Amino acid sequence: MSDTLAFYTHPQSRGRITRWMLEETGLRYDVVMLEYGSSMKSAQYLALNPMGKVPALLQGKTVITENAAICLHLADLAPWKGLLPPVGSAERGECYRWVLFAAGPLEAFITDRRHGALAPPMEAGYGTAEDLLHTLETAVAGKRYLVGDGFTVADLYMASFLSYYIRVGELEAKPALLEYCAPHLQRPAALRAGALDDALVPIAGAA
Q1: Phi first, then psi: what are they for 9, rounded to 5°?
Q2: Per-residue pLDDT for 202 more than 90?
């Protein structure tokens, strides 16, 4: 890949998921750290991402936003890493399923529940709380990997998501969830990404 990757982020944001994915791929990238309420809402950044949020990835002249899209795209940029199964395979579709399950109905459910207003099941993409949480636990219970017999972007996305929401108390720390997340969070790329972002926290706080 000849295009330079520019990674727009803040160390206390969902950009931590993208950082882990970048480290898994081994692709070279430049970091552009933005601040909430200032550079994240600047005219320069809004020209790239009108949402004024991070993360965002600039590849050449193309901007990619939304964490799930960025992670899936990065998996495609580093096919030798095997972070997505082959194009057209059922397993690839299953990867898409779990990444988008976490990014869509699961995150929407947690956000709505935190603010005390779940949507009616027939209107909500997440349906009922019981069905959604049962689906989640069934997906990971007793499994090392969500898809096939190796680590994929689905595991990265799900482990990132679950570990954060367990840590902040938005998801119950059930054994099945903890046992699934534990080995993925100890991957060298996960530890490296965490250390890189943690080192930026004091800088962000002083800005």
Answers
A1: -160, 175
A2: no
**Amino acid (1-letter code) at residue 15:** G
Q: What is the domain-level CATH number for residue 176?
A: 1.20.1050
Can you tell me the distance from the alpha carbon of 82 to that of 78, in angstroms, rounded to the nearest whole number? 8
- Count of domains observed in the chain: 2
Q: Which residues contact 65 (CB under 8 A, 6 or more apart)?
A: 49, 51, 53, 55, 56, 57
- Residues spanned by the domain of 47: 5-81+189-206
**Are residues 197 and 163 part of one domain?**
no
| Other C-beta atoms lying within 10 Å of the C-beta of residue 89 | 13
DSSP tag of 187 = S
Helix (H) or strand (E) holding 56: strand 56-59
Average pLDDT for residues 118-132, to the nearest whole number?
Answer: 93
Check residue 203 and give its pLDDT. Answer: 73
128-182 per-position pLDDT tens digit: 999 999 999 999 999 999 999 999 999 999 999 999 999 999 999 999 999 999 9
What is the crossing angle of helices 153-167 and 175-185, to 10°? Answer: 120
The percent of residues in the chain predicted with pLDDT above 90, rounded, is 94
